[in-house]
Amino acid sequence: MSNTEASTEWPLWEVFVRSKAGLDHKHCGSLHAADAKLAIQLARDVYARRQEGISIWVVPSNQIVASDPVDKSNYFDPMEDKVYRHPTFYALPDALNHM
Amino acid sequence: MYTQAMDTLAREAGDAGLKPVRSAEDMRLEERFDARIDAGDFIEAKDWMPAHYRKTLLRQISQHAHSEIVGMLPEGNWVTRAPTLKRKLILLAKIQDEAGHGLYLYSAAETLGTSRDQMLAALHTGKAKYSSIFNYPTLTWADMGTVGWLVDGAAIMNQVPICRCSYAPYARAMIRICREESFHQRQGFEALLTMMQQGTEAQRAMVQDAVNRWWWPCLMMFGPPDAESPNSAQSMRWGIKRVSNDDLRQKFIDATVEQAKLLGVSLPDPELKWNEERQQHDHGPIDWAEFWAVVGGDGPCNQERLGARIKAWDDGAWVREAALAHARKHTPQQQAA
Amino acid sequence: MTASVHPRQDASAQYLLRLADTCLILGQRLSEWCGHAPIIEEDIALSNTALDLIGQARALLTHAGRSEAGSPLLDEDQLAFLREEREYRNVTLVELPRGDFAFTVLRNVMVASFLKLLWQRLASSSDAELAAIAGKAVKEARYHQQHAGDWVLRLAGGTDESRRRTEAGLAQLWRYTAELFEADAIDDAAAASGLGPRWSELREPWLAEMNQLLAEAQLSAPQDSAFRSTGKRGVHSEHLGHMLTEMQYLQRAFPGGVW
User: Fold this and answer.
1) Which CATH number goes with the domain that contains A54?
2) Which of B29, B304, C35, C193 is the most buried if burial means most Cβ atoms within 10 Å?
3) Does the ipTM exceed 0.90?
């Protein structure tokens, strides 16, 4: 649709929530908010209704920089032939199976 | 229910049969894509995907989102009249969850290259559909429990397979939704059970009346019979649809008949009978003319539902504009769009 | 038709009912926004506020429904749904129709600021149960005040239309706030027993917070007038009757009903 429509829409924000101290922030989804303060408040209302004492990050969606999956083979393939990095490569005595 | 979208596609602008001319590169990409699907891989937002896959998903996810939002209205009809404070809180929390589900789904749809405003414009102009069940009226308090028991029950049956949808943002949204939905159906059933077991004669009559009105429309939620759903095949191929309409409908009927016995209500189908050979329940014919009439805009509440959504959106325009205007004045470095 | 119930008339019960009913009626008004808010995200936020307020009302009504010795007389639902209009003790401010979004956020910030100050004082009530309710509720009130206050700023400083609507809302609402700060024998008894403060003691801190918000929004508080609403005494505006008709319908229409 037209450009004027784009400029009347509230910007999109990505929401990250840490549900418990010691864990990482996890991506929950997104929402629309007019400003950062509202984004945080709405994130609490939308994504953290059932939780207490959590940490919320919000980031404007257009600020996220992502790796391009077309280049996936360049970033990640070199790892595939270095199987010694993976724990399953090593045959350990049964007693150590849970390491 | 939400796969209604793909079934009704067959009756709309003819996608069926026309295949555009494709380059060798496109064919290679599509072969790799099909192989990924067959291997059970998840497709993410930035991955290459066939145009028709993208279009089908966008349509299904956005219509699923619209269904959640419109679905707030029949239940919202009773919030101010809930008979106890506890029931009022439960109902309000349930509707709130539905709003949240709509949000998760709009977010998932936006990853496919559309915006919330575009999707809402499609809804408000009648181009996009929502689940036809929400075009029925909630006439008594017992409708609240019945909607929870039957409508949410049918929705859960539809939604669980979608948690394994090949498109990952949709699958993730569905996992979140299924987790939250666990209390919805239970609460509906519990509200009815309370009235049936501890309530008055008048309350029991109210429950039976609600069940009589909602049973057939709920069966229609699963969409037309498999024989009349040509688009299902492609959607199954692409891991968007996992179980057929008829299979889901049968599963729902078999589970619900047992629940109805526990409640002590009858289901308004004289042909509903256990078939020992099939190990399933036989049932009477569904009035598909009613289904298509409601999908086409001539159901009991189509005008009211869409009218309410359009009004809320239009009435709220000055609020959204004001918030943006304020944001622009106070954070000049923030891109508003 | 289910008959009406009559709550305790002693000062302590009446003091509790004023607070309980104010929370209940505002919660009921806010729940009317469900499905109709300007944007879905805000629909969820408004419902959250309603849920918090009704939750506070439940706890207070349960408490007010017990005898002074603590035995149950009336439960939360009997009190919420079966009193005559004259026995509801909410301030008139909260029974006014929800109006537009500006009216709603203005009323929310006025009431939330007041409740926050009251809950803060009640956290040290001589009544242990009330103190416990207050300890939880003050956090909710703080969040409601923050959220609604931010909206007042956005609307006051947004567009010409949003500013116009905010000024109109303020003009309509302001004179109903005077009732919040009237003290009478019920307040005196509560102060004497340590149950809670006279509501009049909250006037200065409330005005300080409201004036700070209004200054930031570049709005001016309307002049004080001689108008006094009287909901706390059970003499309401014409609006409450309609609300109660809707709210009480099922309980009245299904005598002996179990829900």
Assistant:
1) 3.10.20.520
2) C35
3) yes
